Amino acid sequence: MLSLLTADHLAVVDLSGHGHYLQWGILQISYANTIVILSMILVFALALVLPFPGHSGTAPTHTPRRPADDATPEEGGPR
Amino acid sequence: MSTSTAGAGAGNWTARLRARTLEAVPPGQLLPDEQPAYVASWIYVFGVATLAALIVVLLSGALIALGGPSWWHTNALGHFLNSLHLWSVELFFFFMVIHLWGKFFMAAWRGRRALTWMTGAITFLVSIATAFTGYLVQTNVDSQWIASEAKDGINATGAGAFWNVLDVGQMLLWHIALLPLAVGVIVVLHVILVRVRGVVPPIGIADDGTPESVAPQGGSR
Amino acid sequence: MTAAAFRGRQRRPARPPAGRWHGPMRPYDLAKEFTVALVVVALLTAALAVLFSSPDEKNVTLQQWATADRNDFVATATGELAGTTTSAGYGAPYNTNGDGQSIGPLKLQKWAGIGTPVDPPNDFVVTPLSTISGNSALTDALHRWKGAAADQQTTWASAYADALGKAPDGDPAKVTASPDFGPVPVMTDALAQLASAGQLDSQLVDSSTGFFQTNYTKPLLFLGDSGYLDDFAAGQHLHGNQWGMMNETGNYPGQAWLWLYTFWYQLPGFTDANSTLGANADAIIWALMMVLSLLLILVPFIPGLRSIPKLVPVYKLVWRDYYRGHRA
């Protein structure tokens, strides 16, 4: 399945042929859907374990800044 | 901006609306340039990724709409736009479900955030309906089959008496007008709720950043 | 009243802001994050579109069906006249020839009434044939059909349907002519000719609004009564008992998010159309999915379900850095 240029669409990989399916008992799933679902699980797992840049996890960077323009002297402003 | 209603009559709706709005979302809360220190995990990007995918879905859909419902069958640019629309929808659900998984395991409904969870779940369900109507209006054999099959399910509920999946005109208008509007409104509410309530703190951590003395009950409080 | 007293009266009772964090913060650029996300997702979408394109299997017409499988076309048309097809006995929202599905005493399908009136023998066969002129055999056949009682019509059509079922390949040409069939063979043959010539497709599209038509109920119901679309779907794994709802033609990913909805259709209880469960599968599964959807929406209020995050501590991974830096 290589380059395929047809009159109405371009596709580097032609997915329009005969579908491939995995079968196990009543479970039947296409290769494509399997890849999608496994990718989701993998991405979810990676999102949980991969370190997030710029966060040392030690001292906080700063305490919350009060919004500067929502307070009047007599009211104290909501927060 | 003052939240004071002084100078305005007690019945001034605008002043009261402004006061309530500013109490709910103070300036700086809607477009913050800082966030809680615990918001530091890749799991947090899936909400904005879902939103970005939704924008690509809407843009690609709008571009397809420029030529009407069937031009993409015989036009290479139209087919490419259709491909953009299909893959952005796949990415939309990809990111949205991961976002849902993350929010579930973070019990993100805690701290009076139940409505945030609920609007998110409703967005998911309405998006499924929107995608379904999209498949119905492809105007190819896939549409013919899906319509023929789906009609039985919908007719069984009684909704088929007024919502006819075999009527391409009706389904097209639901797909490009009514359902995207519904998704848009609920998504806006969802995002505003996130801004209003803030990102949920870690389980076992109080609002001031210190550990809670008692382990929290699972559930909204 | 002083201004201060007035403002005091206007202010809402103080309450702690719900979930309003006042612990440690970090810098954050929301606009930049959104822009980066938009660019990345747009590029990813474009890459997928260039790599894989999108499926587009050409739609099927009645003309194709009548040309490619004339025997099946004639058998289906006969079934419409005999009242034995799915459409003929469907019930609401098309006609009153059946009760439709129910969940116990709840007959939602029937109670909703007729939303799109369809009378299969007349809409699919008799009315289109009535537009043909210059065919005296057909004119006589139609005259005979319309003048007969309903019982007689059913008897003719059923007899012809039986004969077609026994003929080799269901070929009408191999059926021995018989007066028991009445005008049905002439009518169904003429309909097949009309369809093969491409003239039936547009005739069946709803013309109640006159010139402009978007309602394809009739041609799709007629097509759905045949095995033609069924065969295509089976080849593409699109049938209900093939997890079809999740699938797409070819090797494309489908609507994987429909996995739970299509799951129920694979269970033995629901696949037997002769059982009560199977005969009402659509209604029961829809009700089940509505309940599950409601449960999803209401997770924050459901004891047990809302405790799972604490019991399966994935959250410890999410916030591990914060916990490490802020031990009790």
Beta content of chain A: 15-25%
**Helix percentage range of chain B:** 55-70%
Number of helices of chain A: 1
The helix-and-strand class of chain B reads mainly alpha
How would you characterize the largest beta sheet of chain A? 2 strands, antiparallel
Low-confidence regions of chain B = 215-221
Given helix and strand content, the structural type of chain A is alpha+beta
Largest interface, Cβ cutoff 8 Å: B-C, 113 and 109 residues
| Strand order, largest beta sheet of chain A | 1-2
* Helix-residue proportion of chain A: 10-25%
Alpha carbon gyration radius of chain A:
27 Å
The share of residues in extended strands of chain B comes to under 5%
Distance between the terminal alpha carbons of chain A, to the nearest Å? 60 Å
Note poorly predicted spans of chain A: 1-7, 56-60, 67-79
Tally of strands of chain A: 4
The radius of gyration of chain B is: 22 Å
- How does the major sheet of chain B shape up? none
H/E series of chain B: HEHHHHH
Sketch the topology of chain A as an H/E string, one letter per element. Answer: EEEEH
The oligomeric state of the chains shown is heterotrimer
Q: Judging from the principal axes of the Cα atoms, what is the shape of chain A?
A: elongated
Describe the fold and architecture.
The complex is a heterotrimer of chains A (79), B (221) and C (328). With 79 residues, chain A is α+β, with helices and mostly antiparallel strands. Helices cover 24% and strands 15% of the residues of chain A. Chain A is built from one helix and four strands. Chain A has one helix spanning 31-49, and strands at 4-5, 10-11, 21-24, 27-30. In chain A, strand 3 and strand 4 form a beta hairpin. Chain A starts with a strand and ends in a 30-residue tail after the last helix. Chain B has helices at 13-24, 45-65, 76-105, 114-136, 141-156, 168-197, and one strand at residues 34-36. The relative contact order of chain B is 0.12. The two termini of chain B are 32 Å apart. Chain B has 221 residues and is mostly helical. Chain C is mainly α. At the B-C interface, strand 1, helix 2, helix 3, helix 4 and helix 5 of B face helix 1, strand 1, helix 2, helix 5 and helix 11 of C. Strand 1 of chain B pairs antiparallel with strand 1 of chain C, so a sheet runs across the interface.
